[in-house]
Structure formats: C-alpha cells, structure tokens
Amino acid sequence: MQITNHTNYIRFMEEARSDYLEQIGWPYDKLEEAEVISPVVNVNCKYKKTTSYPDLIKITTTISKISRVKLTLNYTMKVADELVCSAESSHCFLDGNGKIIDLKTKMPEFYAALQELNQK
C-alpha cells in the first residue's frame, strides 16, 4: 500500500517532541535524571493529505498550553509546504512512583522555559 500508515504519524510526533525538548535544552534523559516522566494522555490527528514512504515530512512543534501538571503540543506536518497533518498531544508529569507532580515546584527551570516558549 504505498501510503504512509496513519499510526506512523504518532511515532513522528514522538520523534518531533523528543527533538523539540532537546533543542530547548530539556532532553528526555535530563527529565529522567530528575525522575520525571511525561506520558501521553491524549492524541488528536487531522489527516489532510496522504503521504508515501519517499516523502520528506517537515514537522513544526509548538506549545499549545502549559500548566503546572500538563503540557499540550501542536504539530504541523508538511510535505513541500503543503499541509498533510495537523496534530496535538497532551502529556502529564509523573514522578518515579507514578504520581502526578507539580512541574513548577519539582522542576521550576523547565516549567519557566516552557512558559516562556508558550508566550512567543
């Protein structure tokens, strides 16, 4: 079926999210060292156009919302400047025991960085 399977877009989002966090100075390993994990609690994709395996999909990641316990990111996926998918993922923040944490209290520098990016 020469069309990219819809489930791959979720993986693309994960890679884009990892790259985004790394670019802003907060890669996943830094969060894990602080015993903070950020599982996905919601995903929403709007598929606009099919893509095929040789297509190069450019993904732009931005912060939609940030609170003390939840982060929502937007993803714009384009092939040659044509929108193929717009998506959103929401994440909570948990400690090593799986309990929801207040990000502003547990990691104030990370929370401040996300707040600053959200205001741009």
Describe it for me?
It is built from 4 helices and 4 strands, in the order H-H-E-E-E-E-H-H. 17% of the residues are buried. The chain has one domain: Thiol Ester Dehydrase, Chain A, CATH 3.10.129.10. The protein has helices at residues 7-23, 28-33, 103-106, 108-118, and strands spanning 40-47, 58-66, 70-79, 82-92. The chain is an alpha+beta fold. The longest helix has 17 residues, at 7-23. 32% of the residues lie in helices and 32% in strands. The mean pLDDT is 95.
Topology:
Elements (H helix, E strand, L loop, with lengths): L6 H17 L4 H6 L6 E8 L10 E9 L3 E10 L2 E11 L10 H4 L1 H11 L2
Antiparallel strand pairs: 1-4, 2-3, 3-4
Number of structural domains: 1
Shape: elongated
**Largest sheet at a glance?**
4 strands, antiparallel
Strand arrangement in the largest pleated sheet: 1-4-3-2
Q: What's the CATH class, please?
A: Alpha Beta
Using the coordinates shown, work out and report the CATH topology.
Thiol Ester Dehydrase, Chain A
CATH architecture, please? Roll
The CATH homologous superfamily is called Hotdog Thioesterase
Mean pLDDT: 95
Keywords: Hydrolase
Protein name: Acyl-CoA thioester hydrolase, YbgC/YbaW family
Pfam families: 4HBT_2
Family: Belongs to the 4-hydroxybenzoyl-CoA thioesterase family.
